[in-house]
Amino acid sequence: MKEVYITALSKFLPNQPVSNDEMEGFLGMIGGKASRARRIVLRNNGIKTRYYSLLKNGMLSHSNAQLVVESIKGLGISSAEIELLSCGTSATDQNLPSHTAMVHGLLDSPMEIISPSGACCSGIHAMKFGYLSIKSGETTNAVTSGSELISPMMMARNFEAESRSESELESNPFIGFEKDFLRWMLSDGAGSALMQDKPNKNGLSLKIEWIESRSYANEYQTCMYSAADKNKDGSIKSWKEIEPAQWLDHSVFAMKQDVKLLSSTIVPLGGKYLTEIAKRRNLDVSSVDYFLPHLSSNFFRQQVYDQLKSDGMEITQDKWFTNLVEVGNIGSASIYIMLEELFNSGKLKKGEKLLLMVPESARFSYAYALLTVC
Length: 374
Fold this sequence. Notes:
This protein has about 375 residues and is α+β, with helices and mostly antiparallel strands. The chain folds into two domains: about 5-205, Thiolase/Chalcone synthase (Peroxisomal Thiolase, Chain A, domain 1, 3-Layer(aba) Sandwich); about 210-374, 3-Layer(aba) Sandwich (Peroxisomal Thiolase, Chain A, domain 1), CATH 3.40.47.10. α9 crosses α10 (about 300-310). The chain is built from twelve helices and 15 strands.
């Protein structure tokens, strides 16, 4: 088995940062009225700015595939040199072809591709496939990415039909919190990593010690979903089972979140899984120099710290590195964009350990990775 190193990281954040007060100028007002949830959600998530491919005229500056290609340009590798391309996202530009196929279509040379599907963990799953390919000797390099293009899904026009339907029952049109909640949480962008079987000759690299992931879908109901509705018994009804006339009336293709299930489940699972990994891998978390947790909201920061501490996995907050406040929650891209900022910050020293944490609430998955600066 070969050793695997991250030798370059790059990100692409489209256009200019969008402040909290500017958001409805891009996303619009449902039923012509300001959102009831916006200020509450933004106060809790702590995000100050985010990035959109969406322009104020409703057009897009970049597709999801284009976001990835722009991030790959910063890695310093030509298309002809890439052996494997692995791209994760929760918001593909289309159902078919696959997301990675569309990214590859914008590049110049043939290569192996794979498209991990899912939500926040799809980016780290893409990284793990590249890691295993190099480790096994199948390839000598891989480019992996996480990216999201969420803003067009959150535009007011996508909810107008449901808003009009609700207004027949109530004087003020509204959209359920499970849909409006995510309009103020999610952002666009892409991050990419170049992995190789040898470290950089000049400058730092990140040796991948391990990447672990675990799904708990067998234990919990669906929590975040799109192209579906959730039944009262917790089961999911696919858009394929719903009459086309109902797609707009129920905003079926919107991304939705069962907030109560999220808050009661996601944090304890993270502590449980890290405890299992630490025991199996003989990991002493006190040896970690930087902890990079993907947080969907700063609301969870103290909860995650308290949970890890109670599980005997305390990582003091002076070791935490996040950029949620400045770039927003970019789903599968968030861990790449955090890692890119730290890697290129000039702060890292050889021998330091980085622990990555990526939770996914779609049906509750977790991923952790340990990297060593070399």
